[in-house]
Amino acid sequence: PDGQIFTASDLKQYNGDDPQKPIYLAVLGQVFDVTKGKEHYGKGGGYNFFSGRDGTRAFVTGDFSEKGLNDEIKGLSHENFIGIKEWIDFYHKDYSYVGKLIGRFYNAKGEPAPILSKIKTRLSKAYALRKEAENENFKMPGCNTHWTKEEGTVYWCEKKSGGIERDWVGVPRKLFYENGKFKRCACIRTKGPSSFESSKNSNNGDLDYHLLKEYDGCAFASTTCS
């Protein structure tokens, strides 16, 4: 069942102020009954600001001011859209779905607005980018880092860094985005064929990848740079 249809003023009545009424909140226009979590969502609770409204944006931005508690999705990142999807999944799993909110995401009949199709497309792109990033992290794990006042930042590689355990150590290199901005330190495999089709056909592992640069003053094969 599609459940009830709410206007913004309808939903506001379920903000936890009246102990005789259930507590509702909305994410992406979907309304959930969070009464069983009233210690969090009820009056005086740490998350009461979400109750009685659609605060989609604040779920992923962390801006819990009146200005930030809204359903505007313009300017959100791909990862933000994944975050919103995860919050919706959480409320479907742990709380009760009640209905839909008339407004940005649903019309007066409870039918989805065109913007939801665009969100679905953004979400697919977001998961594709996350997968791409996971593949990159597996091929080029992050370096271990340590900072001291005397030495500054020290980067080093071993058989586990960046959360990736492997059978090779690698050497630290600066990894850049395509636009030339620095991304992070990466541990780079030095032997075997390249992981990237665009790299030269050699036995230097991923050292020839075009978005890598050596650290100044660091020996070519050193596993530690500063």
If you had to describe this structure to a student in words, what would you say it looks like?
With 226 residues, the chain is an alpha+beta fold. It has helices at residues 8-12, 38-41, 56-61, 78-94, 114-139; strands spanning 4-6, 24-27, 30-33, 96-101, 144-148, 152-156, 160-161, 164-165, 171-176, 182-188, 212-213, 224-225. It folds into 2 domains: 4-133, Roll (Flavocytochrome B2, Chain A, domain 1), CATH 3.10.120.10; 140-225, no CATH class. Helix content is 26%, strand content 21%. It has a 4-stranded mixed sheet with strand order 1-4-3-2. Strands 5-6-12 form a 3-stranded antiparallel sheet, with no helix packed on it. Strand 7 and strand 8 form a beta hairpin. It is elongated and about 70 Å long.
Secondary structure layout:
Layout: E1 4-6, H1 8-12, E2 24-27, E3 30-33, H2 38-41, H3 56-61, H4 78-94, E4 96-101, H5 114-139, E5 144-148, E6 152-156, E7 160-161, E8 164-165, E9 171-176, E10 182-188, E11 212-213, E12 224-225
Parallel strand pairs: 1-4
Antiparallel strand pairs: 2-3, 3-4, 5-6, 6-12, 7-8, 9-10, 9-11
Helix pairs in contact: 4-5
